[in-house]
Amino acid sequence: MKPAASPPAPASFLPVPAFYLYGEPQRDVDKGFVHVESLEDRSRPSEWTIEPHVHRELAHIILIAEGGGAMRAEGYDMLFDAPCLLFVPAGIVHGFRWVSESSGFVITLAVSYLADLLARHADLAPLFATAHVVLLSSEHHTRIKRAIAEMDRELGWKAPGQRAAIETELLSIMTCSLRLMGSLAEAPTPPAQHATLVARLRERIDARFRLREPVGDYAVALGVSPTVLRVACAKVAGRSPAAMLDDRALLEACRLLLYSNLTVAQIGYAVGIEDPAYFSRFFTRHIGQPPRRYRALMSSDERSAVTGGEN
Q1: Each residue of 93-122: b (16+ CB within 10 Å) or e?
Q2: pLDDT band at 50 (very low <50, low <70, confident <90, very high)
Q3: What is the reported pLDDT for 236?
Q4: 11 pLDDT higher than 90
Q5: Closest CA to 35 of 85, 104, 108
Q6: What CATH number does domain 10-188 carry, 2.40.50.200, 3.40.1180.10, 2.40.10.10, 2.60.120.280?
Q7: Residues 6 or more apart in contact with residue 84 via CB below 8 angstroms
Q8: pLDDT score at 4
């Protein structure tokens, strides 16, 4: 039974700003877009606080060279100190509180460019599976800072082989980061076609998860059998397709509980579950607590978060 009050249209469910680069109006992203800028360029004018926002078609790699702070990603805080790298996939609601006078660089990549890169180098995919922090030794910090400086220099002029030079440095940064992640680097490399299939599945889930369609429908739409889809998801994501569908619905529910004033019943309807009691059981089973308690606890955590110190 649907809630008495109809919820707003899906596009308005999440009152979180969507930007091109932080503070810039949303616009189409060029397929090969790669951008490097100083961390201070956007953080200092914002008094070292970047409010929660989302980039629909851009992902970040952020080098923290000095200072530190806290990254809030999908309602969870991750503390960090320099030197380290922050990885922020597209579509993740994220914000930052930097320690004053922190410094570093922000690499921004178009998701279309990143998808092409990961299709050719599928073993790098874990770097963008979720928002996370990679700690750096002084040796790795120096190496990565040098690679970013070279990327920035290449982006500032036109010369033969520019795109190849930029990609070389970017792959060097990503490879170094993957190896620092330890056990992930030791996992068997999934075939490129598996990574491509899972990327297509994620795109379709993002667009249609509210419909709660069965996994078989996704397989048909992607032109593969359910078995092939399950194998690809297990190898690339370590999850079943059904679990990935539930994960996306739960992610949206958590966002709405944290960033909207919708009722629990309306949030259930927003993620495709019309029965409020079933939605509450579904949420509790996966998250470990009822939606109302989750909202209260997370809101309390946000109010009490210590200001530390983009995109």
Answers
A1: bbbbbbbeebbbbbbbbbbebbbebbeebb
A2: confident
A3: 84
A4: no
A5: 108
A6: 2.60.120.280
A7: 63, 64, 133, 134, 135, 136
A8: 39
